[in-house]
Write a structure and sequence with these properties.
- The protein has 487 residues and is of the alpha/beta class.
- It folds into 3 domains: 75 residues, Roll (Archaeosine Trna-guanine Transglycosylase, Chain: A, domain 4), CATH 2.30.130; 118 residues, Rossmann fold, CATH 3.40.50; 228 residues.
- The strands form 6 sheets. The protein has a 7-stranded parallel sheet, with helices on both faces.
- Helix 5 links the parallel strand 17 and strand 18.
- Helix 2 crosses helix 10 and helix 5 crosses helix 13.
- The longest helix is centred in the middle third of the chain and has 20 residues.
Length: 487
């Protein structure tokens, strides 16, 4: 690739390196002063000490010292400007989505309540960590015994459900109940122990899944054999479902980034934003989470709040999350991660401005607490931390039937619903074909419109049954947010 630097917005003070750049190379009217790795930033105009540094057309921090054109711009000369709390005003500024590819249909499983699943699986959910391995044993034997009759049998073990109190226990209960109600679950087996805090009697009122069975391990004779018999009954009912054409409006997209790099905000995240726009414009739903990773870019989303009530809910969620950090004595800017920094991301503001692009231009129609399920079409903000496993589990529990997961560094993780790994750069896609489902690096080669059309087609194929890399690799797990006291 001969092009060395890419300026995202004409207001920017920096440009991103599209390859490793050597000292003395010239591009965009500047001569690079030192070797700069791919995905990092080079100043294309002078910035005074203490002045804001702009990328994506917005400040990503303040200069620690004067920065000359051609200098490498990173943690050594830029600092965050984030504060521990914010005061916001509602100034609506709704955006118009750009060109959209033709919306395809997909083949899904329409449930009795009208929702459409992208898989027809049996999910085994332990109420408590003590029977996590029991659930996994049942799932492994059932998957072999009933292969081909449903799309799969999966257990989702976790370490919680006992010795928890108050809101912490309620969070565990809410996530498990929401997963049990998911349209990708054609049937659910709840496996309890018997003496746990998360009693079956407290969990069941939140579950409306019509194809449900339960077992208590302490009361059972042979809990694995009895569990297998219950799964057989679930399979017999679930296998009656068949795939049928459904519009893209029936998809619920969860959008997530993990292991971001300097290309994430150039390629993968804007590309996923096109997917959010396509689905929401058609009448569907997209869910954005990772609330700490919108710090510094939250006002872009607040300006797209459908109503003052939605705006107030965003403000409360953002300030509440900042309070969560400060109560634990942590700065709100304790991000990006070491991998992010190595990939070229300097401050949380920069990471956030790139991350919110996954939401596209859609209007924010709802704000949900952790463990809640989507109820409105459009763009929903969901309370959850940035941690990949916790936030992706929350997306699935909220009702996402496909998760679009962008990454510049790579990860093998997969979650209860099809998790589409989208590489921000072609090098990663080439090095890790066993992890990656789509190469967003093609945005730089063939353009955004061609890449958007290709990704939308791939999503339709995956929603219709094509396995993701994580599914082929058997990568399925959940993680529950632990916030409270353990007895």
């Amino acid at each position: 690739m001969s092009l060395a630097l890419f300026q995202i917005d004409p207001r920017d003070d920096v440009a991103t390196t599209l390859r490793d750049v050597r000292a003395g190379e010239s591009a965009l009217g500047v001569t690079v002063a030192s070797d700069v790795p791919k995905g990092h930033k080079v100043a294309i105009r002078a910035v005074e000490s203490g002045a804001p540094v702009h990328k994506f057309g917005f400040p990503i921090g303040h200069a620690r010292q004067a920065i000359a054109p051609g200098e490498h711009v990173h943690t050594h000369n830029v600092r965050t400007a984030l504060e521990s709390s914010g005061s916001y005003s509602y100034r609506p500024a709704f955006e118009t989505p750009g060109p959209r590819a033709a919306a395809p249909t997909f083949l899904g499983y329409r449930r009795a309540d009208g929702r459409v699943g992208t898989r027809n699986e049996i999910w085994i959910l332990p109420t408590v960590g003590c029977v996590g391995r029991t659930a996994e044993k049942i799932a492994a034997r059932a998957a072999a015994r009933f292969a081909g009759r449903v799309d799969g049998v999966h257990a989702f073990a976790h370490p919680f459900g006992c010795s928890q109190l108050g809101d912490d226990l309620e969070g565990t209960r809410a996530i498990l109940a929401a997963l049990a109600n998911h349209p990708n679950a054609g049937g659910v087996l709840l496996v309890g122990l018997g003496c746990e805090s998360n009693q079956m009697a407290g969990l069941l009122p939140g579950i409306t899944q019509p194809n449900l069975r339960t077992i208590g391990a302490q009361a059972a004779g042979d809990e694995v054999e009895e569990g297998l018999a219950l799964v057989e009954a679930l399979v017999a009912q679930a296998e009656q479902a068949v795939r049928a054409p459904a519009p893209i409006a029936d998809l619920v997209l969860g959008v997530k980034c993990g292991g971001s790099d300097g290309f994430s905000g150039l390629t993968a995240n804007p590309l996923v934003g096109r997917m959010s726009d396509a689905v929401t414009a058609a009448g569907g739903t997209a869910i954005l989470t990772e609330i700490p990773e919108i710090f510094g870019a939250e006002q872009l989303l607040m300006a797209r709040a459908e109503t003052l009530e939605v705006f107030d809910s965003i403000v409360a969620m953002v300030n509440g999350f900042k309070g969560y950090f400060t109560r634990h004595g942590e700065p709100v800017s304790e991000n990006p991660s070491p991998g992010n920094i190595a990939g070229g991301i300097t401050t949380l503001e920069e990471k956030s401005l790139g991350a919110v692009q996954k939401a596209g231009h859609a209007t924010v129609t709802d704000v949900l607490p952790y463990g809640a399920r989507v109820g409105r079409r459009g763009l929903t903000l969901l309370e959850a931390p940035g941690n990949d496993a916790v936030s992706s589990t929350a997306l699935a529990a909220a009702g996402a039937t496909v998760i679009l997961f962008t990454t510049g560094r790579g990860t093998p993780l997969g979650f209860p619903v099809p998790t589409v790994k989208i590489a921000s750069n072609s090098d990663l896609a080439a090095r890790k074909p066993g992890w990656i489902d789509f190469d967003a690096g093609q945005v730089l080669a063939s353009g955004m419109e061609a890449a958007a059309e290709a990704l939308l087609g791939r999503i339709a194929e995956i929603a219709s049954g094509l396995e993701t890399a994580a599914e082929r690799n058997g990568e399925r797990e959940i993680a529950i947010w632990k916030r409270g006291v353990t007895l």
